[in-house]
Amino acid sequence: MIGKLKWVISAVIALLLLGWVIQPAYALNVKVKVIADGLQSPVDLKEAPDGSGRLFIVEQTGTIRVVMPNGTMRPEAFLDLRASIVKQYVRFDERGTLGLAFHPKYKSNGKFYVHYSAPIVLEVEGLRHEIFGNHTTYVSEIKVSDNPNIADPKSERVLLKVAQPQFNHNGGSMNFGPDGYLYISLGDGGFADDWGYGHNKKTGNAQDLSNLLGKILRIDVNSKSMGKEYGIPKDNPFVDKKGAQPEIFAYGFRNPWRMTFDTGGKRQLFVADVQQNSYEEVNIVTKGGNYGWRVLEGNHCFDYLNPNDHLSSCIKSGKIAPIIEYNHCNKFGGKNCFGVNVQGGAVYRGSHSAWKGKYFFGDWSMTFGGKSGRIYAATNNGGKWSFERANVTNSPFITHVLAVTQDLKGNVYAMTSESMGPFGSRDKVYQIVP
Q1: Per-residue pLDDT for 22 more than 70?
Q2: How far apart are CA 252 and CA 208, in angstroms?
Q3: Which H or E run includes 98?
Q4: Three-state secondary-structure class, residue 118
Q5: How do 215-219 and 182-186 pair as beta strands?
Q6: How far apart are CA 193 and CA 214, in angstroms?
């Protein structure tokens, strides 16, 4: 018995030395500074482009809160959409108020845009009829009121409605690009494997160009065309393609939950796309690009009928590989895995010179059952990206990471939650600092 015990101890030591059951060494030490607490599932943060320095935090449960330049959070909401969104599942939900974008000319026109989950309805001759489905994605334009810290909900103009067959994989991120157009992320319609009710059974929604699901959209909010409440940029890649939706900028996404434009450098669009059971990925997205799902999970051939057993070969040509891919803890356990849901992500452009150009992102948790979110930092090494874990030195940081985003100065923030679902009032937003 003693001999067997010595053998086990020796084997464990050997595995530890080889790094098979521990995480890799930390890339850099960071601190986190609380900028807002007492929140409910904060999922997005934007700085108003009006010179005020105010930060606006989106709570998944339906409100947008304002953090003033002095660090205080206003008690009243900037916008309250709780009466407009679906009734959420308490234990876990991916629906709600999901994204915010300020018009580049917000200072003069007071316009901003929200992405939220409303009950699914079919409008016929002005009447509302409930139909089978789960919810409807709304992208709406709203204006600020005479009070700069309060929006005018009566000003809402719905730009886009997209029927969603399932409760999950909604995307929800929105950003104005350097070109002045609004970019919108949509997931593949939910459930799993891009398969089942509400999915194109032959190709999956993400590869179906006649479907807006599983795409990054690009629209012009300053015009109207083709009978829509928005304009279609003439250089969108599928404007003249028969059967394709002209709003599509890029496709092949499972759940592009968070995306940001680099505030410096080449102003590239970074998209963290939550994958299935084995891998997670981050992409740099370009016009007309196909990012693989459901043909690929990460850069691996995916079998939607056997999602845990990857195919030995598939058609990879014409599909763009992610810049970052990592093993999913659901499959790989302790063997060099990094989490279960990638939470992108922003390129640091703040004042700390050693961090400039690093892409900070997170993962929701190392397991589905516990609060073990992570922050990572990725570095571009001559076109090849590597990443390592960031070590939070001034806090236990035992929490779920819901998103990593940025302000206009290029500082980065982690949105975190103490629970798995959108409830409670204990959640925080941290600024990630040297």
Answers
A1: no
A2: 9
A3: strand 97-102
A4: strand
A5: antiparallel
A6: 12
List pLDDT tens digits, range 354-394.
999 999 999 999 988 789 999 999 999 999 999 999 999 99
Contact between residue 192 and residue 186 where contact means Cβ atoms under 8 Å apart: no
Residue 115 to residue 135: CA distance in whole angstroms:
13
- Residues found in the chain: 434
The secondary structure element, H or E, covering residue 287 is none
The C-alpha atoms of residue 411 and residue 404 are separated, in whole angstroms, by: 10
Q: Which residues partner with 270 through β-bridges?
A: 260, 284
- Which tens digits make up the pLDDT trace of 275-314? 999 999 999 999 999 999 999 999 999 999 999 999 999 9
Rounded Cα–Cα distance for residues 432 and 406 (Å): 10
Please compute the mean of the pLDDT values over residues 46-51 and round it to a whole number. Answer: 98
What order of strands is seen across the sheet that includes strand 359-363? 342-347, 359-363, 374-381, 384-392, 28-39, 427-433, 412-417, 400-406
> CB within 8 A of 323, min separation 6: which ones?
282, 283, 284, 378, 385
Q: Tell me the domains of the chain and their CATH numbers.
A: 39-344 (2.120.10.30)
Question: Residues near 41 by Cβ (< 8 Å), separated by ≥ 6?
Answer: 59, 60, 61, 96, 402, 417, 419, 421, 422, 423, 427
Strand residues in 103-178 grouped as ranges (E): 111-118, 121-124, 127-130, 135-144, 151-164, 174-176
Report strand pairing: 279-285 vs 215-219: unpaired
Q: Which residue, chain included where needed, has tokens 């015009």? A: 223
Task: Tell me: pLDDT of 67 over 90.
Answer: yes
**Between the CA of residue 207 and those of 1, 33, 105, 195, 271, what are the distances in Å?**
57, 41, 35, 12, 17
Q: Which residue has the tokens 């018995």?
A: 1
The H or E element that residue 8 is part of is helix 2-18
Q: Please check the confidence at residue 241 and state whether its pLDDT lies above 70.
A: yes
The separation between CA 190 and the C-alpha centre of its own chain, rounded to angstroms, equals 15
- pLDDT of the residue at 120: 85
What pLDDT score does 335 carry? 72
Q: What does DSSP say about strands 384-392 and 359-363: parallel, antiparallel, or unpaired?
A: unpaired
User: Is the preceding peptide bond at 190 cis, omega within 30 degrees of 0?
Assistant: no
267-273, Cβ contacts within 8 angstroms, sequence gap of 24 or more: 267/177, 267/178, 269/175, 269/177, 269/183, 269/216, 270/344, 270/345, 270/346, 270/347, 270/359, 271/173, 271/185, 271/216, 271/344, 272/342, 272/343, 272/344, 272/345, 272/361, 273/322, 273/342
Cα distance between residue 5 and residue 23, in whole Å: 25
